Amino acid sequence: MQRSAFIFILGLTALSVSCGKNNPHPAPPAPAASPTQQVFQVAGTILELLPAEKSVRIKHEAIPDYMPAMSMPFDVKDTNELAGLVAGDGIVFRLTVTEKEGWIDLLKKVSVSALPKNPVPMTGPFRFVRDVEPLNIGDPLPDYRFTNQLGQPVNLAQFRGQALAFTFIFTRCPYPTFCPLMSNNFREVQDLLLKTPAAPTNWQLLTISFDPEWDTPRRLKAYAAGVRHDPRHWSFLTGNLVDITAIAEQVGEVFTREPNSEGISHNLRTVVVDARGRVRKIIPENKWQPAELVAELVKAAAIKE
């Protein structure tokens, strides 16, 4: 399942999302933001239109005090906003972010030459990764080693006999429908399982950071407290980047840090493993609901050797 060869890879761009902090651009005036709502004027270039998903992927400029220049998908509530636009168009738009949502509107086509000259870097730094095979449904989960938010060693084999769900985040991600949503969903899963009298007790949630340089056990402990985790059932993990990259690649999680930036471009994956230690489900992106994951964990917990 896991070969020992190491290879270099270039950082990938134009992934599903990028998050972090750091040119306003003229656009239609925005309304005053509420205490729980932030509004930004942003410029960028369209990479892909996804009207069926009510989304558009944009290579955007840096958003001061919120996100660095990255490539990511944005939701649009009215797909009529996308009419007349094609990939490669330069646009300005309004980005609205609340505690749990983010979307864009007031899209306006502009000349690409008029956009600010702070292009998204198209390559990232080199990093070592293992040459690993993708995990398929029914495959045994490899035994990776990590460190939890308490500074304790954790290996995946220790969870045999328990249903397991894990996902990936980095704690500096601000965009509400990506890393924060994964953590909020896991908290709801935790609370539903703890409050349901007939629910199984042999289950664990794991949140793995792909920003180990920043997400130390101390920072993960503070983050875990902020999302009201129950340490008996939910752990936050860091570790060697080579191991984090390996397990991520095996389940389709791809991430890269842009040079000289704290932002990380990434997609989303959530994985369910049954009590035998075999992969039961790999859930892409962020459309799943906590109740769905609870149902999967209940089934996974009942599967015995």
Can you put this structure into words, describing what you see?
This protein is an alpha+beta fold and 305 residues long. The protein folds into two domains: 24-114, Copper binding periplasmic protein CusF (OB fold (Dihydrolipoamide Acetyltransferase, E2P)); 127-302, Glutaredoxin. It has four helices and 17 strands. A seven-stranded mixed β-sheet has the order 10-9-13-12-11-16-17, with helices on both faces. Strands 5-4-3-6-7 form a five-stranded antiparallel β-sheet, with no helix packed on it. The chain has a three-stranded antiparallel β-sheet with strand order 2-15-14, with no helix packed on it. Helix 1 links the parallel strand 11 and strand 12 (203-209). The longest helix has 17 residues, at 179-195. The chain is elongated and about 60 Å long. The two termini are 21 Å apart. Mean pLDDT is 84; it is low at 1-15, 22-34 and 118-128.
Write the layout of secondary structure elements.
Blueprint: E1 2-9, E2 17-19, E3 38-50, E4 55-60, E5 70-75, E6 90-97, E7 102-110, E8 127-132, E9 145-148, E10 153-155, E11 163-169, H1 179-195, E12 203-209, H2 217-226, E13 234-238, H3 241-250, E14 255-257, E15 264-266, E16 269-273, E17 279-284, H4 290-302
Parallel strand pairs: 11-12, 12-13
Antiparallel strand pairs: 1-8, 2-15, 3-4, 3-6, 4-5, 6-7, 9-10, 9-13, 11-16, 14-15, 16-17
Helix pairs in contact: 1-4
Describe the main β-sheet briefly.
7 strands, mixed
Give the low-confidence spans: 1-15, 22-34, 118-128
| Beta-strand content | 25-35%
CATH level-1 class of the largest domain:
Alpha Beta
Output the structural class. alpha+beta
Order of helices and strands: EEEEEEEEEEEHEHEHEEEEH
Could you report the average pLDDT, rounded to the nearest whole number? 84
In helices, the fraction of residues equals 10-25%
Question: What's the shape?
Answer: elongated
Radius of gyration, CA atoms, in whole angstroms: 20 Å
* Head-to-tail CA distance between termini: 21 Å
Q: How would you name the CATH homologous superfamily of the largest domain? A: Glutaredoxin
Query: Strand tally, please?
Result: 17
Counting DSSP H or I runs of 4 or more residues, the number of helices is 4
Going across the biggest sheet, name each strand in turn.
10-9-13-12-11-16-17
Report the CATH architecture of the largest domain.
3-Layer(aba) Sandwich
Q: Count up the domains.
A: 2
CATH topology of the largest domain: Glutaredoxin
